[in-house]
Amino acid sequence: MSRIVALEPAPGSPTSLLRTFVGLHLRDLGGWIRVAGLLELLATAGVPTSSTRSAVSRLKDRGLLLSEKRDSLAGYRVDPAAATDLERGDRRIFSYRGQRDDEPWCLVSYSLPEVERSKRVQLRRALMGLGFGAVSDGLWIAPGHLRAEAEDAVDRLAAREHATIFITQTPRTAGPFARSAAAWWDLDRLALRHTVFLDRYEHHAIEASASDDRESFILWLRCVDDWKTIPYVDPGLPANALPADWPGMRSVDLFAELRARFSAPAHDYVAKVAAAD
């Protein structure tokens, strides 16, 4: 699935739910779905037809969907140009990676001239969107497993000659490392994101499974739509950078449990609706 950046719709909006649907299900359908099937599925999830059509237009403008007829049936398919972003999003969303205390860190240092101020802003936003913390102006830090994504962000902005990427052991800070981490990342905000997710979905793990495939589809779509931005603001900090009562791993485990329980019946429901005449 493609990641959601700061300027894109918030979870729960028609455009966000449609994008989540594309990432979760459309590729499994062979990359194409008839218009009527898509409208029915999104309506099942509570999105009015008019809102789905507007959301489709937005995602076509953003290079995620294309209109395509098959056997005289109007439909939509995934834009091949979006494949790389969707796969990158899959890895981040469904393969949460937490760092151990003894693993290396990735630092990105850059200094762009004033004539490239807009590129400097874009690079800062890109690093924030990957979960990097700001040590100071032009110096950012994240767990070492995000190195490839940092390199990709720098390369896509053609900023390589102005940026240096370091892989290093835990920085030596004046006080406890956790105190510095709290200054580099907004840990209160991150914790709140996890807590909201736990409050919203923990009872589904405690109670019986959804009653049928339709209910599983609705729950799983909304669950992923709420979860998908969390791995981008929480880069998987190690225990020595976090408060003792950190809720992050509880929500990571909860998401994995919900995936194991609801993703397969949700897929079955989508396949059935998509195959209907």
From TrEMBL:
Residues 185-271 form the Transcriptional repressor PaaX-like C-terminal domain. One of its GO terms (biological process) is DNA-templated transcription. InterPro entries: PaaX-like_central (IPR048846), PaaX-like_N (IPR012906), PaaX_C (IPR013225), PaaX_trns_reg (IPR011965), WH-like_DNA-bd_sf (IPR036388). Residues 101-172 form the Transcriptional repressor PaaX-like central Cas2-like domain. Residues 14-77 form the Transcriptional repressor PaaX-like N-terminal domain. It comes from the Bacteria. PANTHER family: PHENYLACETIC ACID REGULATOR-RELATED TRANSCRIPTIONAL REPRESSOR, TRANSCRIPTIONAL REPRESSOR PAAX. This is Phenylacetic acid degradation operon negative regulatory protein. It comes from Brevibacterium marinum.
